[in-house]
Structure formats: C-alpha cells, structure tokens
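Reopening this ticket.

The earlier resolution said the output was attached, but the attachment link was broken on my side. Pasting everything inline this time so it's all in one place.
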Amino acid sequence: MLKKIVLGCFLAGMLFNMALGQSNPAPNYHDLANWAAHPWKWDPSDSVPAPLRAQHFKDSVVDVFFVHPTTFTASSDTASNARLDDAGLNERTDELSMLNQASAFNEQTRVFAPRYRQAHYRNYLLKDTTITGPAFDTAYADVKNAFLFFLENYSGGRPFIIASHSQGTMHAARLIKELIEGTNLQNRLVCAYLIGMPVPVDYFTSIPACKDSVATGCIVSWRTMKRGYEGPEYILQETQKMIVTNPLTWTLDSTYAPAKLNTGGILRRFNKVVPHVTDAQVHGNILWSEKPRFFGNIFLTAKNYHIADINFFYTNIRQNVDTRIRMFWKR
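Inline output:
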C-alpha cells in the first residue's frame, strides 16, 4: 500500500512538473562542470587505493568513456530527471560512482564521465512507458551528445573503452549499438564493460561477448547475487539468454572461480584493498558470489550485490583493463 502511495505521489509530481513546463536544460559539454570525470581536472576517478599506488602506471594511450549508474534516488524529489545544477547530487555521484567505480578503469587511460540528466530511480518501478520512456530517452540523449562531443573534441582517433554500471549500462549499450557497431569506431573499441544490467547475447550483431581475458573489441557483463539466490522477480521472468562474464576468469562458462583468484575488492574504506573478498561463478543469467569476507560482514544481509558489482572485483578489473589494452596494441 505504501509503495502505491509513493508511486502515486511521484507520478502526480512528474505530471505537475510537465504541466508547469519546468526547464531542465541539456548540458553544455564545453563546460568542465558537466563532466564528473575529465583529464583536464582532478576528480575522484583519478584516485588509486593506497596499496596500489606503487604499481600504478599513469599513461594516456587509451580513453575510457564511463557512464555512471543511478544516483538520483531522493524520495522527496518528484522530478523524472535530475538537474545538472544539483550540487548535492553531483557530490553523491562523485563520492560514490567516480571514486569506487570509474577509478577502477584509470590504469593506462584517461577517464571521461559525463554528468547527464539521469532518470530517477523510481522510473524503474513504474510500468507506464509513456512516462518512463521520455525520462530514459532524455538521459540517453545527454550520454549520446557527450560521446559525440568527446569524439569531436578530445578523442583524436585514439582507441577507447566503454564502461558503465546499472542505468549507465542501459545507455552505454544503446550507444554502442547506435553509434559504434558497424562503423569505423568499432575498430577502436578495446572492450566494453557493461556491468549491472542485462545484456542479451544477441543484442549486438557483430560485437561478441569476450570469451577470455585477452580478447578485444568485445563485451563483458555481469550482475552479482549471493550464492543460492536466484534473483528478484524481474530476473526470474527473463526469457532471453544474457551475457554473463566471470570477472575472476573472464570466461563465460560456469566453472567455479575460488576467492583466491580475487586479487582485491574495495569496500567502504576506499584505501583498503581486501584480497580474496569473494568468489564467482556464472549461474544462468547472473553471477553468483559467496557472502563477502570482511570485518563487519555479519551486518550484511542483502542477497542482491548489485551495488558492489565493481567493488567486489576492483583489482581484477584494473588488471584486466591493462591486459586488454596491451593485447589491443599487439593486434
């Protein structure tokens, strides 16, 4: 009952905003303030956990275009899309996604991550596509424009990686399908890390799923759940086969990968790397992992590890980015 009331208020608020014609202008990507991560300024995506700094190789041979997940979750906000002048929201994006996720991709790369008018989290709970469709289209339009601006003004023909999580993966997958697949840009794609959302195995025509740790020009994807948990209802209802990569072996099969292969995760304290934090095994359309091993895990009761899709496998991702970049240049 409470959920229906909340959704009803949200829907009424969105319709009221639309009726008023409230302005929420599209971002101007000439302005560095509209980039959560950009090599021309310091931002949290430049961070490296203290134990890894001695081995960190700072270079700029490849660019990363990172699309952040939903951070627009405030229950008191009835807008369908975020405003880019929301300082509190931008800080949340920087402290959560840029620090803990985008930074995993900063080995040998320059990281670009646009701010965009992300759709509010509650759009995932609404079934009326006449409301949710425009919200997600608005968000995607910003991501697309940011990528085109990146190509025109910063890329200079360099190879690139697409990386994303959650809502960001929705937009990144669409971006690859519309602008990269079947074009000359596909030859510059080192890898796409499309994490935290389902990517059907047949979504792309000519860009395959990565079959191992050294393949390039391909897709990796996973959604992490606690071992033994089959996932929420929306996963149980899936009829398509999804790309599921094991981030400890970088293969697509269901071979069990023990926690000893996990070189380190990043949890609440960014500067502490926790080795062997969890294992991984492909299970149907999801990735199974045991309850993570860290001090205080007794308080972790969640079965859906979506929020930690990247954190659990942080150093394995960093190592894999380095490997694929090296293999791309060899090929």
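Reporter confirms the inline version is readable. The two ends are 57 Å apart (CA to CA). The CA atoms of residues 266 and 272 lie 7 Å apart.
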